[in-house]
């Protein structure tokens, strides 16, 4: 077999779990991909996320890695289907936030606005570049999650995840700066 770098590898050269996962991927990834595409109605980014999450879950469950091909295949397909259904249900409960229209806020005192802008800018500098990028694209650029994903070149699910963690980190940075307090939450 080839390890992707042109060198042959043997089962003993890598940890058994990694070898089992490689075999599982080699045997089932193409079929999982086709199934995921059908379940997501052709949404390649969601299908890719679903397949990756399914294989990650298999890696976290070593009992699946050591089972026969048929049992592992049934487990993978069931896990993939469950993951896609769970994602669909979550989107029904928490629909995607549309950031195309940024609400206009009138602020009487321009000095307060300027100071808040400086504080937020400083808080944004404390974020990782990936988190800062999605915040700027979605909130300051007024792009939807799908538009931001296309512009950045990552799946929409990754944009959503990064937005969630970026907002948490931004809130923490603003709390540290004293902008957000218990009284104004």
Please give a quick description of this structure:
The chain has 185 residues and is an all-alpha fold. It has helices at residues 16-39, 44-60, 62-65, 69-93, 110-125, 129-140, 145-152, 156-176.
Shape: elongated
Alpha carbon gap, first and last residue: 58 Å
The stretches of 5 or more residues where confidence is low (pLDDT under 50) are 1-9
Structural class of the secondary elements? mainly alpha
Q: Kindly give the count of domains.
A: 2
User: Main beta sheet: strand number and arrangement?
Assistant: none
Mean pLDDT: 76
Beta-strand residue fraction: under 5%
Secondary-structure element sequence?
HHHHHHHH
Count of helical regions = 8
Number of strands: 0
How helical, in percent, are the residues? 55-70%
What is the rounded Rg?
22 Å
InterPro entries: RNA_pol_sigma-70-like, RNA_pol_sigma-70_dom, RNA_pol_sigma70_r2, RNA_pol_sigma70_r4, RNA_pol_sigma_r2, RNA_pol_sigma_r3/r4-like, WH-like_DNA-bd_sf
Organism: Stackebrandtia endophytica
Protein name: RNA polymerase sigma-70 factor (ECF subfamily)
Family: Belongs to the sigma-70 factor family. ECF subfamily.
How would you describe the overall organization of this protein?
- Helices cover 69% and strands 0% of the residues.
- It has 185 residues and is an all-alpha fold.
- It folds into 2 domains: 11-93; 110-176, Arc Repressor Mutant, subunit A (Orthogonal Bundle).
- The longest helix has 25 residues, at 69-93.
- The model is unreliable at 1-9 (pLDDT under 50).
Tell me the layout of helices and strands:
Elements: H1 16-39, H2 44-60, H3 62-65, H4 69-93, H5 110-125, H6 129-140, H7 145-152, H8 156-176
Helix pairs in contact: 1-2, 1-4, 2-4, 6-7, 6-8, 7-8
């Amino acid at each position: 077999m080839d390890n992707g770098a042109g060198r042959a590898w043997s089962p003993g050269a890598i940890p058994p779990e990694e070898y089992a996962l490689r075999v599982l991927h080699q045997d089932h990834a193409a079929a999982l991909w086709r199934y995921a595409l059908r379940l997501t109605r052709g949404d390649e980014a969601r299908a890719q996320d679903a397949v990756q999450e399914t294989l990650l879950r298999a890696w976290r469950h070593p009992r699946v890695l050591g089972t026969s091909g048929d049992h592992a295949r049934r487990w993978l397909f069931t896990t993939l289907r469950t993951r896609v259904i769970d994602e669909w249900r979550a989107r029904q409960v928490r629909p995607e936030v549309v950031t195309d229209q940024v609400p206009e806020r009138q602020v009487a005192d321009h000095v307060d606005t300027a100071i808040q802008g400086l504080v937020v800018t400083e808080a944004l500098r404390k974020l990782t570049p990936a988190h800062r990028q999605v915040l700027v694209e979605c909130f300051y650029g007024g792009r939807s999650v799908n538009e931001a994903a296309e512009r950045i070149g990552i799946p929409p699910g990754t944009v959503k995840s990064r937005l969630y963690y970026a907002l948490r980190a931004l809130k923490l940075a603003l709390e540290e700066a004293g902008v957000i307090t218990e009284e104004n939450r």
